[in-house]
Design a protein that fits this description.
480 residues; alpha+beta; OB fold (Dihydrolipoamide Acetyltransferase, E2P); BirA Bifunctional Protein, domain 2; 2 domains; five-stranded mixed β-barrel; 14 helices; 18 strands; 32% helix; 26% strand; elongated
């Protein structure tokens, strides 16, 4: 039968159910035990509920598999226990929700089962579920109908449970360090805090254009200016850019800022967070990243960008001219596009991103970045033209990004202005000159360090699922 035929049959059953005086969609059910509880209650009477995933009838007995979020149990329907209600079992279908009450027994075949003395229809389903045996394998359908993916593929729910545990673990770790969790605006009069193209919208009540935030950095820094010494936010950010295996226009970020800390301190805290999450989720710090086993529990080395480029590429970027770096890029960085007009720092960073990350399997901090690509970072205390910025890499993948924060409002204004003028494909990706933020800085910002970590990237890392659609419950997809 086609799905439409199944639906027609179920609609006919629905009318029969109503004719019997049953309510096919009652408001509640007094569920006293979970199915996991029932499985451990042999010899006791239980009252539980769940979704039917299989049904088979043999004369005066019938069997069904009932599932809730804690597990699966067999329901052993018997005419001698149900009396006249037994015949109405024919009105149930796979996918229906039912409540049952009865003793937990062990069948002749040795399977723990509930032998109900009563059952209650809780929801009549109108569409048939995909076969559990064959599963829901169509990737596109899994993403578009995640509810079916979660029902048919229970291991998928475990990944999302781990996402929830991970976010809980982040909060637990930072709260214990004395950080305050805060909320900052999603709609902003000016975007900033990252180099990204924004989404633009219009607020009718104010008759003004606004932007969906691309980062929460500048508002969190305002809070530090306002007297908070340790703040963090877990929130949705929006960047009107491309979609690939690890990027979506809508994504979840955590950023935290600590007053009186520099980038060395921020790296210490971030490294501790990763180790904390490994132990919370798995009880250890050895994780799989693609096909590699990596121990994140060791001390992570901190290597200067210029040093690793000299070591791995034989390129002394501090001494090379911009022209020589451009020539190197054209010769050695296949597929990398330079627009022309890039500063030396931009070319250094482009070469680094093209050549180095895939070489960084063990947990590694890359530190000290060109000033030209880091408009919010504090100038390096001993290297002219460089800033105190870091990125964390594991398994060849960037995991986080942070720096000693720039606190000089005059230098910050200069950096914003330079970034607006810098060579890039889309001028909207530049940091904008945020006058309100600069005004706030002029009231005094203490020394501080900060970091941003993509929660989606973090989940991918800790679940070893390197496709963002696998770890976002309802991924953004093209309309059918």
């Amino acid at each position: 039968m086609q799905d439409t035929d199944f639906r027609k049959v179920r609609l006919e059953k629905l009318e029969k159910i109503k004719a019997l005086g049953w309510n096919p969609y009652p408001a509640s059910f007094d569920k006293k035990q979970t199915i996991a509880d029932a499985l451990g209650s042999e010899g006791k009477v239980v009252k539980t509920a769940g979704k039917i995933f299989s049904y088979r009838e043999h004369g005066n007995i019938a069997f069904a598999d009932l599932k809730d979020e804690t597990g699966k149990i067999q329901i052993f329907f018997q005419k001698k226990l149900l009396g006249e209600d037994y015949k109405n079992l024919k009105l149930l279908d796979i996918g229906d929700y039912i409540g049952v009450e009865g003793k937990v027994i062990k069948t002749v075949a040795g399977e723990i089962s509930i032998a109900p003395t009563s059952y209650t229809l809780l929801t009549k389903s109108l569409s048939p579920l995909p076969s559990e045996f064959f599963g829901l394998k169509d990737t596109e359908l899994r993403y578009r109908q995640r509810y079916l993916d979660l029902l048919i593929n229970p291991e998928i729910r475990m990944h999302f449970n781990n996402r929830t545990k991970l976010i809980s673990g982040v909060r637990e770790y930072l709260d214990n360090l004395g950080f305050w969790e805060v909320e900052t605006p999603t709609l902003q009069p000016l975007y900033g805090g990252a180099n990204a193209k924004p989404f633009k919208t219009h607020v009718n009540a104010l008759d003004t254009d606004m932007y969906l935030r691309i980062a929460d950095e500048l508002y969190l820094k305002r809070l530090v200016i306002g007297g908070y010494e340790k703040v963090y936010e877990i929130c949705k950010d929006f960047r009107n850019e491309g979609i690939d295996h690890t990027h979506f226009p809508e994504f979840t970020m955590i950023e935290w800022y600590e007053a009186y800390a520099d980038y060395q301190r921020v790296m210490d805290v971030a490294e501790g967070l990763f180790k904390h999450l490994g132990k919370k989720l798995y009880g250890h710090t050895t994780l799989e990243v693609e096909d590699k086993k990596i121990d994140i529990g060791k001390k992570w080395p901190r290597i200067e960008m210029s040093v690793i480029m000299k070591e791995k590429l034989g390129l002394d970027v501090e001494k090379e001219t911009t022209e020589n770096l451009n020539a190197y890029a054209k010769k050695n960085c296949s597929g990398m596009q330079l627009l022309g007009g890039e500063t030396k720092g931009q070319v250094i960073f482009a070469i680094f991103e093209h050549k180095i990350p895939q070489l960084l399997n063990e947990p590694t901090w890359i530190v000290d970045y060109p000033e030209d690509v880091s408009p919010l970072s504090k100038p390096h205390r001993s290297k002219l033209g460089w800033v105190e910025r870091f990125e964390g890499y594991i398994g060849g993948k960037e995991i986080c990004d942070g720096w000693s924060e720039l606190t000089d409002p005059q230098v910050q204004r200069q950096r914003f202005t330079q970034d607006v003028k810098a060579a890039r494909k889309d001028k909207e990706e530049a940091q904008q000159v945020d006058e309100d933020f600069l005004t706030a800085m002029e009231y005094g910002m203490p020394p501080l360090g900060g970091i941003g970590i993509g929660i989606d990237r973090l989940v991918m890392f800790f679940t070893n699922k390197w496709a963002i659609k696998e770890i976002v419950l309802f991924p953004t997809l093209r309309s059918k």
